[in-house]
Amino acid sequence: MTLTRSRWMFAGIWLGGAGLVFLILVVQSLVGRYGSQSEDAWAWYLPTVMPTLSLIIGVLATDFRVAASAAAAATTTTGTSAASPDADILPVAARGLLWLGVALSVFYLLLVAVTILAQPFLQGVSPIELMHRSNLWLGPLQGLTAGVLAAFFRSG
User: Is this structure's pTM higher than 0.85?
Assistant: First the structure.
């Protein structure tokens, strides 16, 4: 596995997982699931996924800029394009962080989805109350997940 592929794998996990929950929230908002509290549902969801998505997108954008600059510099000095950044194999030290980051990301995004999908089955708890309650476990797990991802991105 290369560093670039692993970064794109994280992007796929996060864009896919967060995107699925996003679509569910859009549909639920349109059909009035949250009534007058739709804004509260979105106020819960966006800080739940946006910090980590922003980190991943920022890393990918930086990779693109660095690769484009390196290719342009190599082309002007040698007349040929530079080697692909995909040629770099993932450092051994980063492999543990990669798989820990994947496991934490999938687990975290599953818990976010469960918070939304479990709402109809819970009696006596409003959807917004469940969202607020879920911050008790999602907050610390988001911090751990983002920390591992940042360490992984830094390791490359």
Answer: yes
